[in-house]
Amino acid sequence: MSSHHTGPLPERRDRGAISYFFWAFAVTAAGLILGGWLGWAGSRTVEGTLTIFFICAVLAVLEISLSFDNAIVNANKLKDMSPVWQRRFLTWGILIAVFGMRIVFPLLIVVVAADIGPVEAIRLAASEPEAYARIMHEAHLSIAAFGGTFLMMVGLGFFFDHEKDIHWVRWLEERIARYASVKGIEIALVLGVVMAISQLHGGDKGHSFLVSAIWGLITFLAVEVLGGILDRNEAMKTGAQGGLGAFLYLEVLDASFSFDGVIGAFALSQNLFVIAIGLGIGAMYVRSMTIMLVEKGTLSQYRYLEHGAFYAITILAVIMFLQSFVEIPEVITGLGGALLIGVALWSSIRWNRAAAG
C-alpha cells in the first residue's frame, strides 16, 4: 500500500483535539434544542420538555460510549484508503450512518416484521409509538442474531490473522495466531456458537435465531468478497488502493454497531424522532473521533488501541447473543467497551514509556 494514504487532511495534523469536535458540538446544540422543542410541542409543560431534553442527552452519551470501538475500527480501515474515499466516507458515509441507520433502519425493521408499507410504518411511529416499540422489541431476537454474528466475524477476523505480529494479551493471542492459517476457522467457530445457541432456544425461536445468524454470516462474507473485487478493479484502473469496497464494509459495520444502540434506545423512549436526535448526536462524535484518530496517527502511536477495540467488538457480539436470552442494560455494554479501550490505551502508554526508557 502506498505510504501517502495516511489521512484526508495530512497538513492539519497540528490541530488541537477540541477543534475536531466543532461540528459534533454544533449538532449537539441543535439536537438538544430540537429535542426540547419536541418535548414542548408534545406536552406543553416544562416537565415534559425537560424529560425529552434529558432523554436526548442520555441517548447521545449512550451512543458515544458504545461507539469508541466503532471509531477505532473506522480509523483502522480509513488509514489505508485513498484520500478521496476517506473524504467520501466522512461526508456521505456519516450521512448514511446518521439518517440511514438511526431513522430508516428502525422503520425498515417494522416494515419487514409487521409486513406493512413504509408510509404506514412512519404513521405508526408518529401516532402509535407503543405499537411501534412492541414490533421493534419482537424483532429483537433476529436483530441480535444477525448483528452478533456479523460483529463476531469482524472481531475474530482481527485475531485470526497470520500477519498480526503485535500481541496485547500475549498468552491468548499467540495461541490464536498459531491457528490463523487454518482456512475458514473463524466461520467454523461462529457457526458452532450459532448452532449451540439455536439448539438452546429450540422451536420457532431457535429457527428464527439460526436463519438470522446465517444471514449475518452471508452478509459479512458478501461484503468481504464484493469489497475485494471492487478495490482490486479500482486499483487496476488507477494504480492505487481504492476505497469503494472498504466504504461498503464500514457502512455495514456501522449498521451492526447501531443495532444495539437503536434497540436499547427504545427502553428509554418510544418516540422514533427523539431516538434519531439522540443517536444522531452520538454518531457525529464517532465521525469526529474517527477523523482525529486518522489525522493524528493515534493508532500507530498507541500500539494496543486496536486490540482493545476488537476485544470490545467480540464481547459486544457475545452480549448480543446473550441478549436473545436475557436483557442486558446498554450501560453495561457501553461502559464495558469504553473500559477495555481505556485499559488498552493505558497499556500502550506504559509500553511507550518502557520503549523510550
UniProtKB/TrEMBL annotation:
The keyword RNA-binding does not apply. Keywords: Membrane, Transmembrane, Transmembrane helix. The chain crosses the membrane at residues 20-38, 50-68, 89-114, 139-160, 209-230, 265-286, 307-325, 331-349. The keyword Glycosyltransferase does not apply. This is Integral membrane protein. It comes from Pseudooceanicola batsensis (strain ATCC BAA-863 / DSM 15984 / KCTC 12145 / HTCC2597) (Oceanicola batsensis). The lineage of its organism: Bacteria, Pseudomonadati, Pseudomonadota, Alphaproteobacteria, Rhodobacterales.
